[in-house]
Amino acid sequence: xxxxxxxxxxxxxxxxxxxxxxxxxxxxxxxxxxxxxxxxxxxxxxxxxxxxxxxxxxxxxxxxxxxxxxxxxxxxxxxxxxxxxxxxxxxxxxxxxxxxxxxxxxxxxxxxxxxxxxxxxxxxxxxxxxxxxxxxxxxxxxxxxxxxxxxxxxxxxxxxxxxxxxxxxxxxxxxxxxxxxxxxxxxxxxxxxxxxxxxxxxxxxxxxxxxxxxxxxxxxxxxxxxxxxxxxxxxxxxxxxxxxxxxxxxxxxxxxxxxxxxxxxxxxxxxxxxxxxxxxxxxxxxxxxxxxxxxxxxxxxxxxxxxxxxxxxxxxxxxxxxxxxxxxx
Length: 329
Description:
The protein has helices spanning 15-35, 42-57, 64-82, 88-92, 96-120, 124-135, 139-149, 153-181, 185-195, 199-207, 211-226, 228-241, 250-264, 269-292, 296-301, 305-328. 78% of the residues lie in helices and 0% in strands. By secondary structure, the protein is mostly helical.
């Protein structure tokens, strides 16, 4: 686990680490944009660049205070800004049946993945992070839930690698399965939005079959993102009931407040686009800093069991969401 952020350090001591994380985040965003990568989001690329930087060059001690700020404060700010991507109208437009199906899929995937993790002997923090990434929204859910789970940096990196792999495989497979499964564009879009991990993967798979499918996929995915807030709050409450004292995830309240503001006020489209881009930059900086704190040797020692767990979770979320949408949607 990275060292805690301390306000006792002078602000100038944070600059080397913040600059380093910004440069890696910029490289990840540029690479993703230049190649049009939907398989790997800029967040996953930022994590990978950070891990590669540590493995090849190491990290100077002077950068560590700023990297801690990026991993903690910038991460929370990015999650708050995610709320401006959502409105209450988008959430309610799904209809009660579809909303229940998506929520049931999230809950069942999260709970069953944790249970399967115990069966497979996967450490509880890592299993919980894989569960969050598989059930909700990939990288963003993993780093948000880790504010309560308190897993090691290596746990976060492993979980993100797993959901990136299986989410990308799902993005490629879903368009091929729409015909054999007899799904119309809306049903297909809702299924991809309810089952795939990253927003980029959902949009890639959804719009592959047209605008109607892509729009349905996007709305279903945004509803899953909205459910991140209550999940983190419930995890925190559960930890406190067990006698642990995790920090109150106040940033989740900020996420909800941002969603309410975006719903009630006529914010300019240019402002919302700017906030979305800024959120992505902050999140990429946080994940680059996380990668710089990740020991690849520790990842190798985790073995293949967490990878098996993530694969089983991906299969479950795909099958359960399809069934739930057919029954409730």
